[in-house]
Amino acid sequence: MDPYLLRKGKAEISLKNSAKGVVRIRALDVNGAVLAEIPFRESKGSVIFTADTDQYGAMAYELLRIP
Q1: For residues 12 and 56, is the Cβ–Cβ distance under 8 A?
Q2: pLDDT surpassing 90 at residue 2
Q3: How many other β-carbons are positioned within 10 Å of the β-carbon of residue 62?
Q4: pLDDT tens across 21-50, in order?
């Protein structure tokens, strides 16, 4: 299998969230395996977190809402 190249970078992501429930955000690797829980904050009906490829090498993020 060829290695994956990942550019280091950071972005603050804000998503509208008006639904009820507990939010969890997890960093995922290229195969979808969980790397880590990601800290976030909620403000004015939005969920805000920082996507940082340098910290975990995440290729994707999973946002869960648990009722």
Answers
A1: no
A2: no
A3: 13
A4: 999 999 999 899 999 999 999 999 999 999
End-to-end alpha-carbon separation of the chain, Å?
Answer: 39
β strands within 1-67, DSSP E: 10-16, 22-28, 34-37, 40-43, 46-52, 60-66
Global pTM value = 0.85
Tell me which DSSP letter residue 4 carries.
P
User: How many angstroms separate the Cα of 64 from the Cα of each of 1, 8, 54, 61?
Assistant: 30, 25, 23, 10
Residue in the structure block whose two tokens are 């804000």: 14
Chain centroid to Cα 2, Å, comes to 25
Q: Provide the token pair at 19.
A: 């639904």
Token reading at 63:
């946002």
